[in-house]
Design a protein that fits this description.
By secondary structure, the chain is of the alpha/beta class. Helix content is about 45%, strand content about 15%. It binds uridine-5'-diphosphate (2 copies). Keywords: Glycosyltransferase, Transferase.
Length: about 475
């Protein structure tokens, strides 16, 4: 792969830092990076270049990037073209997004230097999945390197502490409960599944990146103090780890309205907007498990029966495969014609991408049954929609614990996640949805979290000040 040259030749001045943003793969990483790009470019007058690894893993990513450049021509495009990376023999059965992280990690040492020099970068912001390979390259060029953590502050504290935990327990011991200093105990059952296996591709990256955090010039996290006070204070006060660099809690980064799908992709999205508009205020349960994973087929059937039995209207985004390009099957194959007929009118089920941010802001939506990918959580916060948490994998149980602690929603902790066999039954799902839909106290608490988020991001708020402090560091690095 070779980086393309930036579209303009002027270099960043002292008053307008020239910042290169380098996300890794998957919408869960790309979306917060594009929000950061827009906040820095349009909001703080920075000169922003975004590194784009092509071809993207999913088509959702390529559409999102195209929409970003169309709406924000001031953001420069730095393309990294990829030869196919076949590591399936090295990591049999590995997740395609993790393989892409690995491919990026392997090419970063040789590619990143020329790319930064060509862009005249005054600072680099890399995704947490690339930290350990990117920081040494930036250091060599004397370019300050910041790590952007696209998940929760609680998860960042866990990640920063986890290598120390491993060193303390010693090799050969399983991962138990992890007491993150200054934060709280992450039970073994909430530790991302992969981390129980020291040889897993994800674990190797996670630990290498965790160790590298101390060598960054600063850490950005899409979180805000009022929602995760323990974690933000423990990170900023260096209780988690005494050697941590400054931590800038800049969230929740605001969604960018102009990035809607257009053309054929918009048509494929079908009629969910019209359907939502037809609903009276607040009867709809929105159900989505994010862009990364598909529920097992038998769990999809239980969820279908649960939604049918709960009696509420629902909008359900179903994924049948990990990567959207592979998801060709029909809805009726997954759910059965009879189910689709029975719920017609009351429930809308779709396999296509929906503009989730727009859905959550729609007055018809009252509850979000969510896997608790961190972006989904932050979007629920900004739109004030209570969450019924059903974490499935990776950091999602940690995020679900944040959801409960801050008052954003509820979590049935005994519900299974990937790797556990027990199915969550239709009756349990229906009962919890009904309870959450009738929980007025929860709706009030959720509204309070939204208020706190609004206060954090306006001029003078904690997140606003953190972002401004970060920009200042890029102008006048220490
Ligand atoms: N993560 C991390 N370092 C990495 C990769 C992932 O800290 O090198 C963390 C982070 O908390 C992230 C979680 O692991 O949110 C799951 O990451 P993954 O990329 O699997 O999931 P996604 O964010 O795409 O849902
Ligand atoms: N998303 C969306 N429409 C969909 C599925 C996902 O807009 O049909 C967006 C969602 O709003 C979020 C991102 O994709 O911004 C997914 O990130 P998240 O961290 O919630 O979960 P992941 O997909 O990484 O598991």
């Amino acid at each position: 792969p070779a980086p393309s040259s930036p579209s303009r030749s002027s270099h960043g001045s002292r008053s307008s830092p020239r910042i290169v943003l380098f996300p890794s793969a998957g919408m869960g990483h790309l979306v917060p990076f594009t929000r950061l790009a827009v906040a820095l470019s349009a909001g703080h007058g920075c000169d922003i270049s975004l590194v784009t690894a092509l071809p993207t893993v999913s088509s959702a990513e390529s559409r999102h990037i195209a929409a970003l450049y169309a709406a924000f021509p001031a953001i420069r495009q730095l393309d990294l073209r990829f030869a196919p990376f076949d590591a399936s023999s090295e990591f049999p059965g590995a997740d395609p997004f993790y393989l892409r992280y690995e491919a990026l990690r392997r090419c970063a040492p040789s590619l990143l230097g020329p790319l930064l020099a060509g862009a005249g970068a005054s600072a680099l912001v890399v995704d947490m999945a690339l930290a350990s390979v990117a920081i040494p390259v930036a250091r060599e060029l004397h370019v300050p390197c910041f790590v952007f953590f696209t998940a929760s502050a609680t998860m960042l504290s866990f990640k920063a502490y986890f290598p120390t935990y491993l060193d303390d327990v010693g090799a050969g011991h399983g991962v138990g409960d992890v007491d993150v200093p200054g934060v709280y105990r992450i039970p073994s059952s909430s530790v991302p599944q992969a981390l129980h296996d020291p040889d897993n591709i994800f674990t190797r990256q996670f630990v290498a990146n965790g160790r590298a955090l101390a060598t960054a010039d600063g850490l950005l996290v899409n979180a805000f103090h009022a929602m995760e006070p323990e974690a933000v204070e423990a990170l900023q006060g260096r209780f988690v780890l005494s050697v941590l660099p400054p931590v800038f809690a800049v969230g929740p980064l605001m969604p960018v309205n102009d990035l809607r799908e257009t053309g054929e992709a918009a048509q494929k999205q079908g009629n969910y907007r019209a359907w939502l508009d037809e609903q009276p205020p607040r009867p709809v349960v929105y159900v989505s498990f994010g862009s990364r994973k598909a529920l097992p087929k038998d769990q999809i059937k239980e969820l279908a029966a649960g939604l049918e039995a709960c009696g509420h209207r629902f909008l359900w985004v179903v994924k049948g495969a990990v990567v959207d390009r592979d998801d060709a099957g029909e809805l009726s194959e997954l759910l059965g014609e009879a189910f689709l007929r029975r719920v017609q009118g009351r429930g809308l089920v779709t396999k296509s991408w929906v503009e989730q941010e727009e859905v959550l802001r729609h007055p018809a939506v009252a509850l979000f049954v969510s896997h608790c990918g961190w972006n989904s959580v932050t979007e629920a916060v900004s739109s004030g929609v209570p969450v019924l948490a059903w974490p499935r994998f990776a950091d999602q149980r940690v995020n679900a614990s944040v959801v409960v602690r801050c008052g954003l929603g509820v979590w049935a902790e005994q519900w299974s996640w990937e790797g556990e066999e027990a199915l969550v039954r239709a009756e349990e799902i229906a009962a919890l949805v009904m309870e959450a839909m009738g929980d007025d106290a929860m709706a009030v608490k959720t509204a309070n979290v939204r208020e706190a988020a609004s206060r954090a991001v306006v001029d003078g708020g904690t997140s606003y000040l953190c972002l401004a402090a970060f920009v200042h560091r890029c102008i006048a690095p220490r």
